[in-house]
């Protein structure tokens, strides 16, 4: 569960893809749905994704799970204090100062998947660190002014949603994201002919041939974390889009707290 529901969902899909793990049910849910769509019970492990642990629905969901006897894990930035309702604190990355959480998202997923999948997953994360830093100039040429729509299926859908979120936070664009199949059942009729569409493409996406994208980000391989390079590319493309539109991605536009 978490305020970062997308991080929770990508962790869920990663664990489901791992064929060496004991097959137990995994539920990913927004913090506000805990107690409604998902009810923790004694013996459950509950991971609360909360970068700052500053209160709100995620902390209330953590408290609720603790009262019901679940084993509660707080997934937060380094240096964030452990909440009294968390039985275990799992630190991720240094605290990010502004809203566009990039390392915070990947760091949280890295911490949880490594804890639960162990050495094999850790080796894959270490391999990811060997990827070269993308050329920002190349990303800027590819990104242009950014997309209006992102689509993808399975992990691709949640990557599309995370990419859209990063484009909203960094470039201030009103981007929409859909599952590939969902897009062809209504949303496609609201798109214009010249709309830029970014497609996060998995090999078995049944709409691969029908989606006319201006930019395609491929997911290759069968390992549980095969989707991670695509997420990193989306984060760089969001930065490139912001720069192309003359927007400072480090400008924190969180509204000031009311007196």
Summarize this structure as a short list of keywords or feature phrases.
4-stranded parallel beta sheet; 3-stranded parallel beta sheet; alpha/beta; globular; single chain; 7 strands; 259 residues; 37% helix
User: Mind telling me the C-alpha Rg?
Assistant: 19 Å
The total count of strands amounts to: 7
Instruction: Report the sheet with the most strands, covering strand number, pairing sense and barrel closure.
Output: 4 strands, parallel
- Global shape: globular
Overall pLDDT score: 93
Please provide the ordered H/E string of secondary-structure elements.
HEHEEHHHEHEHEEH
Q: Note the gap between the termini.
A: 30 Å
Helix content: 25-40%
Descriptive report:
This protein is α/β, with parallel strands linked by helices and 259 residues long. Helix 2 (57-67) links the parallel strand 1 (45-49) and strand 2 (71-78). It has 8 helices and 7 strands; from the N terminus they run H-E-H-E-E-H-H-H-E-H-E-H-E-E-H. Helices cover 37% and strands 14% of the residues. A 4-stranded parallel sheet has the order 5-4-6-7. Helix 1 (5-17) runs parallel beside helix 3 (103-117), helix 1 runs antiparallel to helix 6 and helix 3 runs antiparallel to helix 4.
Secondary-structure blueprint of this entry?
Blueprint: H1 5-17, E1 45-49, H2 57-67, E2 71-78, E3 88-94, H3 103-117, H4 119-128, H5 136-143, E4 149-152, H6 155-171, E5 176-179, H7 180-183, E6 197-201, E7 215-218, H8 228-244
Parallel strand pairs: 1-2, 2-3, 4-5, 4-6, 6-7
